[in-house]
Amino acid sequence: MKPVPKLSSAFLHAACDCMPEPLLALRKQRASALVDMPLPTRKTENWKYSAKYLKLSDDMAISLPADGKTGTSLAVPGYKVVFLNGVMIPEASEFPDLDGITIESFRDLNNDDATALSKKLGGTLDHDQAQFARLNGARFEDGLLIRLKPGAVLDQPLFIIHETHGDASGSAYPRVYVEAGANSQMTLVEEYTSGGEAPVLVGTVTEFDVADGANITSIRLNMEGENVQHIGATGVLQARSSRFESHCVGFGGPLRRHDLQVRLEGEGAETKLNGVVVTQGKQHYDNHTAIDHVAAHCNSEETYRNIAADKSHAVFNGRIHIHQDAQKSNADMNNKNLLLNSGAEIDTKPELEIYADDVKCAHGATIGQLDETSLFYLVSRGIGRRDANVLLTMAFINELVAQIPVEAVRETAQTRLNEFFDKTFEEA
């Protein structure tokens, strides 16, 4: 029998000891727990479609340096925090100066705050499902702690620009933790970009602790290059009457994986998850979502759409778990998929587990191709075949793109989608 591959010990050694001692102790503890960690294979249920795309070498274990210049001169309609290879760059950032809101690098935390944070990191995630979040816990070299006091409102979106640059192989592990106090509000935009051509690994973790009545919007835009393997996890804990809204837009690469886990732990909590993924060439993108209805009278709505062209591969695995005490739950999951070529592949697996008897739940998934009748109709009205393809494909996802509440992100996503269309469709 072929032995199960294990994570190389080279990945268990972080390069920088620039954080407070409680966080260093946590990192050391989590690194020791990863000794002989098995890597996922096609027999690993939640990695069966993605394991073959995971390519880790000892060169990638080296921490990417954060001493270069960022390529980010992005003018954003809000506040901005810039990370280079997982380390915050203060001089490139623009922080809000508002009562009740603090934003600090992990490296700048005092001992008391670092101790409190060390007890919370990872508490929003099921690490059995998001295995590589453990690697982030053993390797992060900085992070961002965002704290909103009760009633605090961030008046403009906060953009976190995660830039990865690799002139040589290596890895980076960005980390963000958000504590949203009761009745607080904010919009957080995380944008992932890259430069350089060397093969690199980016392992990200973002966590939200959403207190009673808080209203949080999270926007995640993945635009990294073809040299980047990206494995990310987002964990959310929601208290009573809170609302969490997520918009994820992803463009494929050699390996893209995102685990999004939401726990509705307080009565009356609501969550809305939207996702759009496009892949082409030989790219791969895998979205795994999990919504746990723990408390009663909670609502969840989830809509993900995938488009795959050429010989690319997209995956959606969505699970809704209605716990025994979660009476009066309302949950709806919908996944629609569009194949643009016969060589493309999309795998979808919606899951619904119900252990309560007074609920309203639904889930569904479809996979199809562009409708030839609709194409013929548009072409017969004088529209070129390429433009007809673009119109129908954009219509398939425009409903979700249009719901992104920050105009600058919508425009950025649209620009990248236009590039996708230019490469995918040729004028007939």
Structural topology:
Elements (H helix, E strand, L loop, with lengths): L20 H12 L46 E6 L2 E2 L12 E5 L5 H8 L14 H7 L4 E5 L9 E9 L3 E3 L2 E6 L4 E12 L3 E11 L4 E8 L5 E11 L4 E9 L3 E10 L5 E10 L4 E10 L5 E10 L4 E10 L7 E10 L5 E10 L5 E9 L3 H9 L4 H17 L5 H18 L4
Parallel strand pairs: 1-5, 4-7, 5-8, 6-9, 7-9, 8-10, 9-11, 10-12, 11-13, 12-14, 13-15, 14-16, 15-17, 16-18, 17-19, 18-20
Antiparallel strand pairs: 1-2, 3-4
Helix pairs in contact: 1-2, 1-3, 4-5
Which descriptors apply to this entry?
Fe-S_cluster_assembly_SufBD; Iron-regulated ABC transporter permease protein SufD; SUF_FeS_clus_asmbl_SufD; 6 helices; 428 residues; alpha/beta; 17% helix; 20 strands; ten-stranded mixed β-sheet
Descriptive account of the structure:
By secondary structure, the chain is of the alpha/beta class. The protein has one domain (26-368). It has helices at 21-32, 111-118, 133-139, 372-380, 385-401, 407-424, and strands at 79-84, 87-88, 101-105, 144-148, 158-166, 170-172, 175-180, 185-196, 200-210, 215-222, 228-238, 243-251, 255-264, 270-279, 284-293, 299-308, 313-322, 330-339, 345-354, 360-368. It has a ten-stranded mixed sheet with strand order 2-1-5-8-10-12-14-16-18-20, covered by helices on one side. Strands 3, 4, 6, 7, 9, 11, 13, 15, 17 and 19 form a ten-stranded mixed sheet that branches. The chain is globular and about 70 Å long. The N and C termini lie far apart (52 Å). This is Iron-regulated ABC transporter permease protein SufD. Pfam families: SUFBD_core (PF01458). Residues 169-396 form the SUF system FeS cluster assembly SufBD core domain.
